[in-house]
UniProtKB/TrEMBL annotation:
Keywords, comma-separated and alphabetical: Kinase, Serine/threonine-protein kinase, Transferase
Pfam families, per the entry: HATPase_c (PF02518)
Originating organism: Streptomyces blastmyceticus
Gene3D superfamilies hit by this protein: Histidine kinase-like ATPase, C-terminal domain
Domain Histidine kinase/HSP90-like ATPase stretches: 45-126
CDD domains: HATPase_RsbW-like
Protein name (record): Histidine kinase/HSP90-like ATPase domain-containing protein
Length: 168
């Protein structure tokens, strides 16, 4: 029987404590994952978005954080962050349409990180799990964003070719 799942897909999960160092650890992990899958051209944007999502989870929840990094078709990546606070923050509480107009005053100190995610990501979304959603005590939310591989002007993304050792 044939399967409908794509071949050779990958996914990584990292559980992080509610700690100010979690964003740094998430960025290092993401950097390693992208490098090992030859997606270095996504690294700068993906690190920024991961840092903003994990920092938001640390600031506005009091429990652990889970980071998921998953391959997308056409050599992209989805970055998802789960935390224990079920409230969907601005601007993720609105549909994923552009342009995104900030609701906050320009002089505010907090609240710009997720706006950066929405402006820089190719796609984004959220899902809340309210109190008692899947059993007692389970609650929280997922915030996610996606980045597609940057393609050179001439067409498809070039992959590094590893030469065979010892001949053809």
């Amino acid at each position: 029987m044939a399967t409908v799942s794509p071949e050779n897909t990958w996914s990584y999960t990292l559980n992080l404590p509610n700690d100010p160092r979690s964003a740094w650890i998430a960025r290092i992990t993401l950097r390693g994952v992208l490098s090992s899958h030859e997606l270095n051209e996504l690294r700068d944007d993906a690190e920024l978005l991961t840092s903003e999502l994990v920092t938001n989870a640390y600031r506005y929840s009091d429990g652990p954080v889970e980071l998921r990094i998953r391959e997308l078709p056409e050599e992209g990546v989805r970055i998802s962050v789960w935390d224990t606070n079920p409230d969907i923050p601005e601007p993720f509480d609105r549909p994923a349409i552009r342009p995104v107009a900030p609701r906050r005053a320009a002089e505010t100190t907090y609240g710009r990180g997720l706006l950066i995610v929405r402006r820089c990501a190719d796609n984004w979304g959220s899902h809340s799990f309210g109190e008692g959603w899947s059993g007692p005590g389970f609650r929280g939310k997922w915030l996610w964003c996606e980045l597609g591989a940057k393609k050179p002007a001439g067409g498809a993304r070039r992959r590094k070719v590893t030469p065979l050792v010892g001949g053809a």
